[in-house]
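Re: the pair you flagged

First of the two:
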Amino acid sequence: MSNTVLITGASSGLGLAFIQHYVSLPSTSRIIAIDIAPLQPSTSQFQNITFFQADISNDSQIRSIASQFSTQPINLLIHSAGIRGLNPQVLAAQQAANQPGDVAAAETYSAMDSTTMLRTFSINTLGTFNAITSFLPSLLLASDPKAIILSSRMGSVTSNVSGGGYAYRASKAALNAVVRSFSLDVPDVAFLLLHPGRVETGLVGWKEEGAMGVEESVRDCVKVIEGLGTEGSGGFVDRFGMEIPW
């Protein structure tokens, strides 16, 4: 079977690790990669990768890309693009003072502002909506299509027992609501909200305590993706396939 895979956030972190996994599979005929940053030279050498440099929150850019594939089936969408929603001024002050990176301090209610909140929603929530709506016609042309949206346990309202994380939590909770609605409105596509775990990526400028490598996370995530069918559409799970409360 020949599959076309679309991956957003493709130039780094989990998106890049997913590319490295799927490009190695004989069943992958083409990878469509999207990111606002240039593709890594290590992956741009592969002839079956078609890369587009675009902003996932810019609907006209994403729809323009999607129009090039409107008559071609896409079997798997992995939406990895996103940001952490930290106040850049707080991060800059930490760096200027040679302080250790402190994520929590950059996302408290006193550190948060409307600019950071809106930018985080624009990329994490609106970007997800753009990716799905733009490429939905191609997904519907495939047999057993899947749309995997990388979410976060921090988007679980039930699991929020520590507070903070205002922009990121809210944007991921909204993302979850968007994808849940798609799973009900488009039953022919298997949608999944997948929490990849605490992973060492470019979401923050340093390695967080307890963060795993992207390869370990992707290895587990792929098993969950492979086992997904329409009966599991709309689920919110971790990288082991265990349900996360809303």
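Second of the two:
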Amino acid sequence: MTARAIIIGAPRSGSGKTSVTIGLLRALARRGLKVRGAKSGPDYIDPGFHTAATGLSGVNLDSWAMPPSLLNALANQAACGAEYVILESAMGLFDGIPAPEGRSGSAADLARLYGLPVLLVLDVSGQSTTAAAVAKGFATYDPDVRMAGVVLNRLGSERHRRL
């Protein structure tokens, strides 16, 4: 993959990954940057949203269903003509199916394979400092998956943010 890229991941579905991804894609596209969206796993709805946000067709990257040659070809195609690729994780970052190393279908597979950093989206509704423990767990769980930052989603107030 030749374009700069990042994975938007989370502990689970419903954390706000799609909203963060589409917002980031649209903001970069409005700045005149060529940005393409991608989705891990067999989700064919979100790439349509990515396309609407950027004007460039979205792509699916599935390390379980796609042979490595196809996966690499699609990753290279996604990077072609784009300065940035924003890859949205399906489900939780490490979620996939039992399979040989690197073939589970998880976004973490793609992070390892392509050396992509992860922006972690945490739904912090109903918690405060526990979110720090969750973020630290993600940062240390797999040394081959590098966390680039954290987005705290669904903050209740400014006081909640400071906690």
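The chain has a mean pLDDT of 94.

-B.
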